[in-house]
Amino acid sequence: MTPPPPPPPQPGQDSLPALVDDLVSDILLRLPPDEPECLFRASLVCKTWNRLLSDRAFRRRYCEFHRAPPVLGFLHNRSGLARFVPTTAFRPPDTEHCYAIGCHHGRALLRERRSPDFLTLWDPVTNEKQYVRMPDIPMASANGLVLCATPGCDHLDCHGGPFLVAFVGFDAGGEGASACLYTSETGVWSTPSYLQLDSYLDPQPPVVVGDALYLLCEDGETIMRYKFAGKRGLSLIEPPDVYEEGVVLMPVEDGGLGIAGLDMSTLYLWSLKTDPGGVSGWKTRGVIKLEMLPIDNLRSWRHLVGFAKGCTSDIVFVTTDAGVFKIDLKSEEATKVCEHGSSLVIFPYTSFCTPGTILEPTKFYMFDVCEYSALSNF
Q: What residue stretches are annotated with the F-box domain (predicted)?
């Protein structure tokens, strides 16, 4: 006797798996980006979750939901070589024979020690590297950044694609400062801009605001501006004050240039404003007492060493005798991110790290290998 036919599907039954996927996706969307291991653990629960988390559409929704990429760690130069210090579970492979110049739009700009004629562009999340020949300008020291040049990109999730390199060199032999712009689509450097400069470039990370690169000179006593779009050129800006315990540059919410300076456990915040008559001047944005830092006395060593745009607030980094701390400028909370505080320059690295972006050789750096192997058995 033939078995009875299966019952007809109930109304809406076919759409149930899609509905469940949507609900799961909405839940996973809320996992914190500054704890990337949460996404990777979730991707190991089952094939369905792995498919959802690896999907490009989910990655896009995740970036838009959280609005700004998290700080995954920072690069610093130790014994002349770039080393990545994680502030999350993300741990990329070490770079070899390079030292760091800057981090921006998901990529680090490195100088090759074994091949000094080349710059390395490194994406720590994907572990992809690209190489650019150095510009033909005189330099004893240099600074610069990589900029994403993908048309229409909102720079939430920059990985690969066309790019620019804004680069400034300084020659102590009397040539002063030189700056030029590299475009990946043409593969050539622009005609250099020159500026006579008696001071020197600081190694602190530069910052991009609009169509200009801003750099510190002479321990923060001068700010250099390299306009790399339209009529290119170099110019100097006087800072609002001189701070013995460190200065960092930053973009501010209105799209202008900001600066933070540290003096005797007090952080001073400024922004550069232009009045209707076209005259620019510094305006105070606030003062923060760093009483949250574990500093025993006023003579304890501390130095302002970096800035990053976090997921919910701007962040500055301060190195002390007790280690390196990140300070949330909105909540004024301090969190230790590194036990050793010897670095005077750090390059914070911000990027979303999801199962859909990270490459296989890098993936196993996300967790302890034993932990990852155990999770893989579920």
A: 19-62
Task: For the chain, list the domains and their CATH numbers.
Answer: 18-61+359-376 (no CATH), 70-350 (2.120.10.80)
CB-based contact 115:73 (threshold 8 Å): no
Distance from chain centroid for Cα 298? 31
pTM of the model: 0.85
115 exposure class (CB count in 10 Å sphere: 0-12, 13-18, 19+): middle
DSSP string, 215-257: EEETTTTEEEEEE-SSS-EEEEE--S---TT-EEEEE-TTSSE
**What Cα–Cα distance (Å) separates residue 334 from each residue in 68, 130, 326, 339?**
20, 36, 6, 14
The pLDDT tens digits of the residues spanning 344-376 come to: 789 999 999 888 776 544 444 444 433 433 333
- CA separation, residue 123 to residues 21, 272, 377 (Å): 31, 32, 30
Per-residue pLDDT tens digits for 67-107: 889 999 999 988 878 999 898 888 898 888 888 999 999 99
Record the tokens describing residue 40, joined without a space: 């990777």
- Mean predicted lDDT score pLDDT of the chain: 84
For residue 205, give Cα distances in angstroms to 58, 107, 217, 249, 281.
32, 13, 11, 8, 23
Q: What is the pLDDT of residues 293-331, one digit of tens each?
A: 776 555 678 889 999 987 778 899 999 888 889 999 998
Q: Which two tokens stand for residue 57?
A: 């559409």
What are residue 164's DSSP bridge partners? 147, 183
- Nearest CA among 326, 317, 321 for reference residue 345: 317
Cβ contacts of 160 within 8 Å, gap of 6 or more:
123, 126, 128
Instruction: Give the residue, 341 or 328, on which the prediction is more confident.
Output: 328
